[in-house]
Amino acid sequence: MKKRTLLLATLATAVGLAFQGAAQAASYPSKPIELVVPAAATGASDLSARIFAKYAEKRLGKPVVVVRINGASGYKGSRTVREGQSNGYQVLYTHQGLIANYLTKVAPYSYDGFKVGPAVVEDATLGLYVSGKSGIKSIRDLLARARAEPGKLKATAEYGTLSHFMFLKLQKEQGVTFRLMDTGGDAAKLAALIGGTVDVMARVYSGTEDYLGSGDFVLLGEPTGKRAPNAPEVPTYKEQGIDFTFPPYLWSLFFNQDTPDEIVEQWAEVAREVTSDPAYRKEIESLGMAWTYKSPQDSAAAYASIQKTFAELVDRESAVAKQ
């Protein structure tokens, strides 16, 4: 009798929660939504989030306000959403930096600490840059010098971020060693390479065009299987005979675990409509990025694959020196 009563109570709770989730979804959204970006202003995350928010709010009928919460390589912003009780009124806009944070113990959770939503932007152009004064003209030149002088070449790799994992993967697969230096975010990386504090930098293509045009920087290629759609003039490493690839940045929406599934699915439909809009696509491409759409299920599968790749690098992790 007690078991039956307990079973009935459990079923009643489950049904009640299901009805509650459906009711919340039916009236959603009833107020402005915060799109939380765990990154600095004017960076790729911030700029692309603003474009997505502009098109999403047209379909949702309520303001979608971009809120930047930077710090600890993105951990502060992701924690705000994960620990909140927003029921879909705080949505995290980020990429696989969540995985890098987790594997480097910056954060105690990974992408699966959230309900994974749709992906709406990607960027496969995390390339390697050297100074125009270095004499290095190709990825082959860089690897040859790194092999000749193990641990001497200084690489800017912000700890717990994708640039950090790119260098770990490059070292493992190509049998080279760099001295990894944590110089800070994108602006600090640019200053470090210009000032000669480091010898090589990993960065996305957008925002480097002027430095390339002036000859201050040399871009050694892109780590993609085929040329990136947002930088078709840049050759891949594979084209140059170097078998090295790296997963593209994949920006997705993430939700607190308490968010009703119906609201996540509502966002998936909004994202599908937004990414089908030619005007949205044009604005994203104007940033030097690429639009995409992946369902919540496909996004989660992509992150699972990336985490498996990154996890294999952790045991071989090299220390990252602070500047």
From TrEMBL:
Protein family per UniProt: Belongs to the UPF0065 (bug) family.
SUPFAM superfamilies named in the record: Periplasmic binding protein-like II (SSF53850)
Protein name per UniProt: Tripartite-type tricarboxylate transporter, receptor component TctC
Classification via Gene3D superfamilies: Bordetella uptake gene, domain 1, Periplasmic binding protein-like II
Coiled coil: none
Signal sequence, start to end: 1-25
Species this chain originates from: Azotobacter beijerinckii
Keywords, ordered alphabetically: Receptor, Signal
Alphabetized Pfam families for the sequence: TctC (PF03401)
Record-linked InterPro entries: BUG, Bug_dom1
